Amino acid sequence: MPPKPGRAALQERYDRRQAEVVLGAARVFARRGYDQTSVPQLAEELGIAAGGLYHYFGGKEQLLIAICDQLMDPLLTEAQALLAEGGTAEEQLRALVRSWVAHVVEHRDHMLVFQQERHVIDHGRQWAQVRERRKRFERLVEGLLRRIADDGAARLPDARLTLSALLGMVNHTAQWYRPRGRLDVAAIADGYVDLVVG
Amino acid sequence: MPPKPGRAALQERYDRRQAEVVLGAARVFARRGYDQTSVPQLAEELGIAAGGLYHYFGGKEQLLIAICDQLMDPLLTEAQALLAEGGTAEEQLRALVRSWVAHVVEHRDHMLVFQQERHVIDHGRQWAQVRERRKRFERLVEGLLRRIADDGAARLPDARLTLSALLGMVNHTAQWYRPRGRLDVAAIADGYVDLVVG
Amino acid sequence: MPPKPGRAALQERYDRRQAEVVLGAARVFARRGYDQTSVPQLAEELGIAAGGLYHYFGGKEQLLIAICDQLMDPLLTEAQALLAEGGTAEEQLRALVRSWVAHVVEHRDHMLVFQQERHVIDHGRQWAQVRERRKRFERLVEGLLRRIADDGAARLPDARLTLSALLGMVNHTAQWYRPRGRLDVAAIADGYVDLVVG
Amino acid sequence: MPPKPGRAALQERYDRRQAEVVLGAARVFARRGYDQTSVPQLAEELGIAAGGLYHYFGGKEQLLIAICDQLMDPLLTEAQALLAEGGTAEEQLRALVRSWVAHVVEHRDHMLVFQQERHVIDHGRQWAQVRERRKRFERLVEGLLRRIADDGAARLPDARLTLSALLGMVNHTAQWYRPRGRLDVAAIADGYVDLVVG
DNA sequence: TATGAATGAGCCTTCATTCAT
DNA sequence: CATGAATGAAGGCTCATTCAT
Predict the structure, then answer these.
(1) What are the DSSP calls for C74-94, one per residue?
(2) How does pLDDT run across A52-94, given as a tens digit for each residue?
(3) Is D164 in a helix, a strand, or coil?
(4) For the domain that residue D144 is a member of, what is the CATH number?
(5) Would you call B117 an interface residue with chain A, using a CB distance cutoff of 8 Å?
(6) Which of the residues in chain B have pLDDT under 70?
(7) Phi, then psi, of C179 in degrees rounded to 5
(8) How many inter-chain contacts (A to B, CB under 8 Å) are there?
(9) Which residues of B touch A168 (CB under 8 A)?
């Protein structure tokens, strides 16, 4: 008889399983749509009984929130780390966009869900924190673009417009990127930056 | 006593009402989400009884298709007209993007629904025609970008990547544009083109 | 310009159309089922607009009642006439069953509807008259069977049971009779009587 | 503490409950009519929530099919067993009709539903199996009647017509039989057979 | 921890019916 | 006399969720 796992080990197994569920849910939701996927359907694809999901999540919407957190948290963390490292604004932008595109590409499913459910995120009561992180990330990028514009280096037509354009193109990447495509992540990111900084 | 309306007049009234319903539905769906809006809710916002909608549409999904058609049809038509008018590739691109941005901005609700429901459009059986029009439009833009690249005028990193970027930024406009904002449609469109053609 | 039809002519046309509708409805209901046939469907098969039916009938159930009346009224009338004509009980039974089978066969659709909707007829408030006519007819047949039994002619096991058997076999005819089948109406009727009277 | 039920026990409980539901549904449908009974109404009479029914049946029509199966399966099985036992054709017929009448009487509700919904059974796509069993049973009876006719014992007017008559009278029994009536099942069955074989 | 049964609410849709035209 | 538009109610069914086991 194996030794009874301790409390910590149990917690770890629980967390691992929870993260797996979030990942799987993102995959399923991205394909079928969040609303069009019923909890029983989702459970079946995850190889679990419908009721079993409720051990890991209070409900369907909390699962959606978890997906968005799993998407936004590391992105924001990494962006802040990059900005702390120093370098010119353009160097920082290039590094940031590379990291960002990589993140988008690795979390394509999360991104697709995120975009699908924009109207919930924008208006929902419980979504304030997700909105706030998105806002924080956008401000980071905006700050960089302003620094570049101020450096005079660029003929940026308008920092806000450029920000919007960049957001649009990078996030849109989730919708067309295919793993073994012609361009790798770095090439894509550099292409975007080249467009933006001329 | 007014003259009894003829068959043609009846048809016209029917069509007008139908178009109104599509427009209204786009507005409601954009705000609340397609799936989260029940048919009774939609009907109430349109000032019609729930069952009455079914005189104009076979079902909820057909309504969604109609929204996408109302979005794509005139855009494609106008794009084709512009390309037929002649001019350099860059001039044509500038004109096309202006028209495109204007369309996106005027049909913001349609665009938001379109993006929300991407997974249905991409996979659904009945969505082939919508997919095909989207593809056709993208090819039009791609052709222009290739012509520009071939003219040597531009340091386009990659025509396909540029296309994706442009699609991303223009379509994303629907998510942040506000009617009386700082930038008008022409400024936005020109900003985008400037990014792309350097 | 043809002369304006008089009130009587109008009434006649109305009645003719009404009878046509009853006939057509019986046909459609027999095939599809009364409940499974929606009023629009019925109207379409009759070549009339849905609302138009309501010029001839107060509602769907009244149409069903009319079908049953069109079935029962002439049957009862004819049975009474036959009994008034004299003859031995067995002769009268033979004549009655011939007339009855002929009626069932000619009104197959009515019969099928009648049997389908037995539970409504048995319990419904407005169905008392139909029930009463059915009862009256059954009593006529029962009387004949008793007279035959009393004549000692027959080894009828039990007049009531024989009545039930006869009702069962004759009414069931509607379910298998086909117009150009092997047996004609007289042969069928005589076969039934032969079974019953030995 | 009772032992946790195993998989087999669970399955058994499920099957038992399912059979109860079929039985109850037959009762309710016989009284109110299949179409006139809504699923919520049915559920209420069965003491279950509306949605709960769908654990046991895919839909309302499958429930109807189950009712017909519960009616036909044991009847056919028993008939085949009787025929395998040997005896003269007439003895077998008498035994078969007794068993058949007993079955009809015990499954009166099933029979009434079966007859009500004849049009669905006759035409529906999913009803082929039920139709086939009905046909198989009829052929069994027909075979017996032919053997009797060939034995020369009987002045059967026509084997096919006699079959139809027998079907009509036996099945019609469901519509008039009352549990504590004057005649018991054996008397009824024998009465029918006496009519048929003279 | 995980399950299968069960629930109540709500979904999309269709219905029988009415009525202005 | 007939139509097409519209309605309110109800239909069958699925949903997210709970809970005893």
Answers:
(1) HHHHHHHHHHHT---HHHHHH
(2) 899 999 999 999 999 999 999 999 999 999 999 989 999 999 9
(3) helix
(4) 1.10.357.10
(5) yes
(6) 1-5, 153-156
(7) -45, -45
(8) 120
(9) 168-173
Best CA proximity match to C170, nearest among D165, D167, D192: D165
Q: How confident is the model at residue C15 (pLDDT cuts 50, 70, 90)?
A: confident
Band (A155; pLDDT cuts 50, 70, 90): low
Answer yes or no: is B2 within a domain.
no
DSSP characters over C147-189: HHHHTT----S-HHHHHHHHHHHHHHHHHH--TT-SS-HHHHH
Task: Please tell me the total count of domains within chain D.
Answer: 1
Report the distance separating Cα D34 and Cα D61, nearest Å: 9
Torsion angle, alpha carbons of B63, B66, B70, B72, to 10:
120
In a domain? residue B1: no
User: Measured between alpha carbons, how far is residue A10 from residues A5, A6, A23, C133, D85 in Å?
Assistant: 6, 6, 20, 78, 66
- Protein CA at D137 to nucleotide C1' at E10, angstroms: 45
In a domain, C2, yes or no: no
Smallest CA–C1' separation from D52, nucleotide: E6
Please determine, for residue D154, whether its predicted confidence score (pLDDT) is greater than 60: no
Burial group, residue D60, by CB count within 10 angstroms (0-12, 13-18, 19+): middle
Identity of the residue numbered A104: V
- Rounded to whole angstroms, the maximal C-alpha distance in chain D is 70
- Picking from A136, A13, A172, C129, the residue whose alpha carbon sits closest to that of residue B167 is A172
Is D139's pLDDT higher than 60? Answer: yes
Please report the pLDDT score of residue C143 as a whole number.
95
CB-based contacts of D39, cutoff 8 Å, min separation 6: D50, D53, D60
Q: According to the model, what pLDDT value does residue A7 have?
A: 72
Please give the helix or strand (H or E) that residue B57 lies within, else none. Answer: none
Domain that holds residue B20: 7-197
Mention every residue, 6+ apart, whose C-beta is less than 8 A from residue C34: C64, C113, C116, C117, D35
In a domain, A182, yes or no: yes
Single-letter amino acid code for the residue at D115: Q
pLDDT tens, C34-58?
Answer: 999 999 999 999 999 998 899 999 9
Q: Which tens digit of pLDDT belongs to each residue from D79-94? A: 999 999 989 999 999 9
How many separate helices (H) and strands (E) can be counted in chain B? Answer: 9, 0
| D62 part of contact set with chain C, CB < 8 Å | no
CA B91 from centroid of its chain's CA atoms = 22
**A156: alpha, beta or left, given left = phi > 0 and alpha = psi -120 to 50?**
beta
In chain B, what is the greatest distance between 2 CA atoms, to the nearest angstrom? 70
- What is the arithmetic mean of pLDDT over C92-105? 98
